[in-house]
Amino acid sequence: MPERKLMYGNHAIVEGVIAAGCRFFAGYPITPQNEIPEFMSIRMNEIGGVFIQTESEIAAINMLFGAAAAGKRAMTSSSSPGISLMQEGISYIAGADIPVLVVNVIRGGPGLGNIAPAQSDYYQGTKGGGHGDYFTITLAPNSVQELYEFPKLAFELAEKYRNPALILADGLLGQMMEPVEFTQAPVDPDTLREPPYALSGCKGRERRVVRSYDLKPGKLEEMNWQRLKKYQKIQETEQRFEATACDDAELVIIAYGTCARVCDAAVRIARAKGQKIGLLRPITLWPFPNKIMSEMSKRIKNFLVVEMNMGQMIDDVKLATECRSKIHFHGRPGGGVPTPPEIYEKIKTIMGGA
Amino acid sequence: MTMEIIISGFGGQGVVSSGIILAHAGLTEDKNVTFFPSYGAEMRGGTANCSVVISTDPVASPIVASPDVVVIMNEPSLTRFEPIVKPGGILFYNKTLIKSVPKRTDITVIPIEANAIAEELGQGRIANMVMLGALIKKTGILKVDTLKMAQRERFTKAGEDQLSLNDRALDRGYDQV
Amino acid sequence: MKQLFGRPQGLTDVLQRYCPGCGHGIVHRIIGDLLVKLDIRERAVGIAPVGCSVFADEYFNCDMIQPPHGRGPAVSTGIKRARPDCFVFSYQGDGDLAAIGTAEIVHAAARNENITIIFINNAIFGMTGGQLAPTTLPGMRSTTSVQGRDIKTQGYPIKVCELLAGLDGPHYLVRTAVNAPKNIIATEKALKTAFVNQLENKGFSMVEILSMCPTNWGLTPIQSKKWIDDTMIKYYPLGEYRNRAKEER
Lengths: 354, 177, 249
Prior knowledge:
The complex is a heterotrimer of chains A (about 350), B (about 180) and C (about 250). Chain A has about 350 residues and is of the alpha/beta class.
């Protein structure tokens, strides 16, 4: 068995990012993710990487734009209000087809909100987030282990499709401790190939230009249609999910991140009492795992969406299940975190009245 | 086997450290563990609490709604957490600092003179170690030697004097129940 | 016939879309020249701003990037830290640098980031059609100050060299102009110093260049040159505001 180390979620992200061969971090302090820049400043110093504490999240995302356009793996982390500030930059980066990694350790909103765990940035993270036609590849880890593993996956997907990738965590995942197995073989950044767009000086080649605009008539439209093909391919091939106890389930809960953990516990309570409840956990929030949901909806009459928000995922579930099933909802906005008994009560209500 | 624990007290009573030591010891004994602290503004406001889950199965929820065990270090924590202990659960409380008496009759209530014992050993701030010693004895969830190892992992900058004092506090707590 | 003068290899062979009498072309030409003279074209990465000179990514014959409005110094920082061997220059107008990008330029200067900033100050928003800029002079007319800039409601212009000279960080801050041969020669000299500073790892250099915008000033090109001499230079005095190289001597 590989070594298991008790780690904070926020620290696990740092180790995952470094294992993925990323040597560039720029970011601005904000609770509940401060342990990321703090630990990153120490680790980047140890391994000769770049750490910059910026004047704002706006500067941070643009430093990423520069570093990533220069062909390097680059990441930033923040929490909800800071991610809002980054949206302009993320839109430009998406429009320039440049891969970067952004981690959002979500807190309660809107506005300054609070610092409690939340999932209220689901729309922002899955519908583009900034201006223009674009999507980010969005991953939702549900354990400290996945916080360690997903940065590498995110970089690989981002680079494969030349698109920004987002990890949506929340304050609970960032602040909790769990054992981590160091499963990743560390990527040596020097072994990563220089990407074809990299700005590195035009010696021995044509000059390169990284930009998101084109004012020639019809050209931007054409660029957008090209990007749609990319998005369709991602939707076709990159849907990820975890299905637990769904085979004989009469009710399937759909939840991601922290809520998936809480619902997992609720499913165990229900199963122990003989109730046939399953859990479907989207791992990619975009692309949304609609194939499995469409499939399930042919058999499952009731789905229960559980989120730490007012129900932002419901629309996606309704579309995925093509309105064949009844969609129930249990939500906790504004930093509320549901408990397993609370979810179980909801299950009882649905099963009793279903 | 799954045990859900909440530890609560003032900031500075070693609540977070206690939780991490428990989780670490659990990991050392090859169990599955989660640790989740109250954080940020709430913590700086003076009260601190944390949830620890130790289990032979993979831990589902790190959120603890009705704990099997609570460790209460101060008065406000008793008010807050006594009502949510699972029926049949155990409530340890720091009798030195808490004048109220827990009222629940469907749980086991164990008073520990944690601060008095700690002061006797020469250091009030190791009252948390006394409580941990009592907790593992009563619950049998972990071995005392594992906790002694875990506290050494936690306090990497402490000298041997402090570490052995912590050990003695664990032992004294252990002998209380 | 011997050719004495031509387009430098540091510029691409495309028609530049600047207005007649605009100063951008002169500055572009100097930069294009320096990229070749200093033999840095093949390791240069340039930043084109949002504004009239957004098209600079088509004009400079080197790797280029076009970031969000005002974020040139942050993008430059990312490139330079990721590839310290690259020569990184950020070309910015006054709306880009002194309005929306104020935080980025101040902090890049405070960090003494080893990058070169070319700051074109023409006291007006060009691309969007002549609105008030942070550099528009008191009393000067723009499409959002049709009676002239009213300092009571629209405040005072920002003098960027003087502002940044209040910081310990920057290595080199200078203001020049491109309205007359003498000033153009001084601009070329200043830009060369700013470029060499980066090659010698000295840190942050900025050349602020007073430049003509006849279209939005409502003047002829010749009147525009004279206006810089008569009015603009009086408000924005030319000269070095910081030169650590001289202080160290």
